[in-house]
Each structure stands twice: as structure tokens, then as C-alpha cells.
Design a protein that fits this description.
It is a single chain. The protein contains 3 helices and no strands. It is mostly helical. The chain has a domain at about 25-65. The radius of gyration is 20 Å and the shape is extended.
Length: about 80
């Protein structure tokens, strides 16, 4: 019977992989693999949003003029 992979099991699998890292080069390689994976996921989602019309040229132009920094409230 094939077990269903839960989030906890997935995290444990990743910890077992990380435990086998032997060098800084391996860390860099894993970072690149993860960065590539998430970059592809972002591209797929952007393509989906563009295809559905949620994002278009007007939205991109609007975003280019938005101020998206977090306001800081300093205690005085």
C-alpha cells in the first residue's frame, strides 16, 4: 500500500537529505535547485493569472507606480 505523503513526512524527508550534506558546494547546489523550483512555480502562476485576465498590461503599469513599502510606526 502506497502511503500518502503528509506535510510532516515531507519535512522529515527533507531533513534526512539535509543531514547528508557534506560540503558548502552541496548546500549551494540545493539552494539553486530550490530557487529554480520556486521560480518555475511563480512563472506558472503568472502564466495562469495572465491567461485568466487577472493580470494584464494595465495591471502591470499600475503596479509599477505603487508604493509597496511597509510603513513603520516609531514609538516616540
Amino acid at each position: 500500500m502506497e502511503r500518502e505523503l503528509t506535510l510532516h513526512q515531507a519535512k522529515m524527508d527533507l531533513l534526512r537529505v539535509v543531514d547528508r550534506i557534506q560540503s558548502v558546494d552541496e548546500v549551494q547546489t540545493i539552494r539553486l535547485i530550490l530557487a529554480d523550483y520556486y521560480a518555475r512555480k511563480v512563472d506558472e502562476e503568472m502564466d495562469r493569472l495572465w491567461g485568466s485576465g487577472t493580470i494584464n498590461e494595465q495591471v502591470l503599469e499600475q503596479w509599477s507606480h505603487e508604493h509597496m513599502r511597509t510603513p513603520y510606526n516609531y514609538a516616540q
